[in-house]
Write a structure and sequence with these properties.
The protein has 7 helices and 7 strands, in the order βαβαβαβαβαβααβ. It is 44% helix and 15% strand. It is globular and about 50 Å long. It binds NADPH dihydro-nicotinamide-adenine-dinucleotide phosphate (NDP). InterPro entries: NAD(P)-bd_dom_sf, Sc_DH/Rdtase_CS, SDR_fam.
Amino acid sequence: MSTKPLIVITGASSGFGAKTAQLFNSKGFPLLLLARRTEKIKELPLNFDNVLIENVDVTNKEELQKAITKAEAIHGPTDLLVNNAGIMLLGNILDQDEEEWQKMLQTNVIGVLNGMKAVLGHMIERNHGTIINVSSIAGFKAFLDHAAYAASKFGVHGLTETIRQEVADSHVRVSLISPGAAETELLTHVTNEQSFNDYVSWKESMGGLTLDPQKVAESIFFIYEMPQEVTIREISIAATKQQA
Ligand code: NDP
């Protein structure tokens, strides 16, 4: 058993979550890594000695709670939860299938609330613990074709700041990271061809210099490594060439 505390990361199978998992793993933290495609987590370049991997859909609060309880029985209480799992499905309000709205709101908002609820009670009891929610620049400003995604990420901003205030007196930290466009699998799930192409053209306007996911992982680590009495409330981070 590691002497370091347990870190839980949702959406660890690709993108920011995978990079964050690798960074904390390289520093010797025991990890609980969650996603639906667990086979992808198993392919990451990790030292698997203190790594638990569970197939969890964050919209299923029982599944999520069960995985966390199992990891805590081995490694002790969760000291950091990175609520990173999310999806972005772009489209114009008139064309986008409402099921895509539901999927985003369920995953990006209810998934984050499920994660917070699963760990907050014990964190408050211990007067210790940190939650970092991954939002987006689309969580505080609008972009065309992002209506339901923006609704979900503005939601993450609202719930994070509310809960931060609610638990501040317990010395539990709640933080937000809002990245700009980065090269991950996020865009690959977009079904609307026009929205997909517009996003790709927009990214190309950055001359291939979109945000490196590694920098998001490093920012998450930076928030965590501050002393417990210091909360970085929010980091907004994007490629220098991202104008909007
Ligand atoms: P990826 O698509 O590369 O990663 C998303 C991760 O979320 C995957 O590991 C995926 O795993 C997981 N996930 C999605 N839905 C669920 C679910 N229902 N249950 C469990 N896990 C789920 O994208 P990113 O790394 O870019 O995205 C990470 C976060 O960053 C998201 O919240 C996204 O909105 C946000 N973000 C991304 C930006 C970007 O440009 N890339 C910019 C701003 C914010 P699996 O499919 O295996 O379940």
